[in-house]
Amino acid sequence: MAARAVLQRRFSPAPITRSKTTSAQYVAARSIDPTFEKFMDNYKHLIKVIAVQDLILASPNEALPLPLLSSAAQRLHVRRGAPAFLRAFPHVFSLDFSSPSEPLVRLTPAAAQISRDESAAAASSSTAAIDRLSRLLSMSPSGSLPLRAVFKVWRELGLPDDFEDSIIAGNPQIFTLRDNPKEPNTHILHLSDNYHTPNPRFTPAVEQWRSEERSQPESNAAELEYAFKQGFPPGMRLTKTFRSRLKDWQLLPYAGPYDPLPSVGVGRARMEKRAVGLAHEFLSLTVEKMVELEKVSQFRKWLGMDVNIRDLFLDHPGIFYLSTKGKRHTVFLREAYAKGRLIHPNPIYGTRMQLFNLVLLRKRRSDIHQPRTSSGNQECRGRG
């Protein structure tokens, strides 16, 4: 009952006096969505697999000495040791004993091909990558972001492996790298003045939903002007008070993610709603419509989000879902998923789901050499 009370007091779009709860209590009090939790229960293994894969691909001849992987096991959260981890995913990794000195860890032919396909998909969509990076920079009031923060999310944004050369250096009319005066040996990525906010070319992703809703015969344009699509976890109790506050919050005006910051101070409620709009757009720019909370936090101050990011996601369970599986906090954009699937898959996402399929096979015997699906329309519900 205590957890439910915390949930009802804190899950409210309206400005309220928050109860004195710890972060752990607040997270524990959220309504659980079994579909997303089941997905993350399997996806947490893919995260570790990709980390090991990156080490292999960065090694000479794409072969990583087993002792080097063992020494990095703790940092990669491979707690049972490198050999046990490799044995758990035989469709992704193989051991090469041809070296007289030490075994070498390689990708299987199927996993290596998937890696090449993902790199090719990212390289072939450079126009979309430029657009996503430009949008991210345009959400910053200064039109600039630390390069190291961008590096944190390059894979989530679907940028090419060499994006610093192919995207940034290759488009000097759009992007500029400058030294960070506050931190030696670091750089700030700037958007050129011609592309800086306010930029009417960029329309927030939420406007697509609003446009679709306005086309409905019984729609109310005034109610949709500042509204967000809502969809709540199964079993979440929506009280009459909650619904009333949500309705008021949906009507609340706010400055969009590509709009200039108001020249005069605004109330906290509007500031928080702007932060919701920024977070919504940030997630919309990602390939999988999901990202680790820690990575979003890297951009908080640069995007002008003067709020607690974790609480922001928890306060709006109809828009976002926060999972804690794998000892990490991962945020999903609810409206991007339906019945456990990404509604609009893309080629980069498709290749990742092919690797996910190999991870899900684990130690099962199979003569499958090609992933079962090429559409990338992978269900969030894991296979056992």
Automatic annotation (TrEMBL):
GO terms for molecular function: RNA binding. Residues 33-363 form the PORR domain. Signal peptide: none annotated. This is PORR domain-containing protein. It comes from Dioscorea zingiberensis.
